[in-house]
């Protein structure tokens, strides 16, 4: 399965943001320090998240970012789409007649990996930021 650091970091940063969202806007610097993600990388990620209306920026001394919707309304799929992240288990395109291995036919296990990809993406469609915040809070107890 292929999921880049961009997708993982976007989810980590938004879970962090969701934890503090009710108090004040959250600075990328604070997220960077708490999560160990480069500030430059977070700026790139949040630029895409802002363009896709997942977050909005608040200017000023107490500025930072806030979620554009409630955490329960933001699914992991929304986040991945916003940062151009695709979860793939096969290298070929789904509708391609050509197989993953460059041959004219698909490999013997192609349907297995394709089905797995569907299950993974369905899982991400169901999971919200709120689910991850709750999971994190329960583990701390």
Q: What do the pLDDT scores average to?
A: 87
SSE topology string: HHHEEHHH
Strand content: 5-15%
Strand order of the largest sheet: 1-2
* CATH homologous superfamily title: Winged helix-like DNA-binding domain superfamily/Winged helix DNA-binding domain
Tally of discrete structural domains = 1
Q: Provide the gyration radius in Å.
A: 18 Å
| CATH topology assignment | Arc Repressor Mutant, subunit A
Per CATH, the class reads: Mainly Alpha
With helices defined by DSSP (H or I, 4 residues minimum), what is the helix count? 6
Question: How would you characterize this protein structure?
Answer:
The chain is mainly alpha-helical and 141 residues long. The chain has a single domain, classed as Winged helix-like DNA-binding domain superfamily/Winged helix DNA-binding domain (Arc Repressor Mutant, subunit A, Orthogonal Bundle), CATH 1.10.10. It has 6 helices and 2 strands; from the N terminus they run αααββααα. Strands 1-2 form a two-stranded antiparallel sheet. β1 and β2 form a beta hairpin. α1 packs across α2, α1 crosses α3 and α1 crosses α6. The longest helix is centred in the last third of the chain and has 17 residues.
């Amino acid at each position: 399965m292929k999921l880049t650091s961009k997708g993982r970091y976007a989810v980590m940063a938004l879970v962090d943001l969701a934890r503090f969202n009710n108090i004040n806007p959250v600075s990328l610097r604070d997220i960077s320090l708490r999560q160990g993600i480069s500030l430059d990388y977070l700026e790139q990620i949040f630029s895409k998240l802002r363009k896709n209306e997942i977050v909005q920026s608040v200017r000023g001394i107490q500025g930072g970012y806030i979620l554009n919707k409630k955490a329960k309304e933001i699914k992991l799929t929304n986040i991945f789409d916003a940062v151009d992240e695709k979860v793939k288990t096969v290298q070929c395109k789904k509708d391609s007649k050509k197989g993953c291995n460059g041959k004219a036919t698909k490999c013997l296990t192609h349907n297995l990996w394709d089905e797995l990809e569907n299950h993974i993406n369905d899982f991400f469609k169901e999971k919200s930021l709120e689910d991850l915040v709750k999971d994190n809070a329960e583990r701390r107890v």
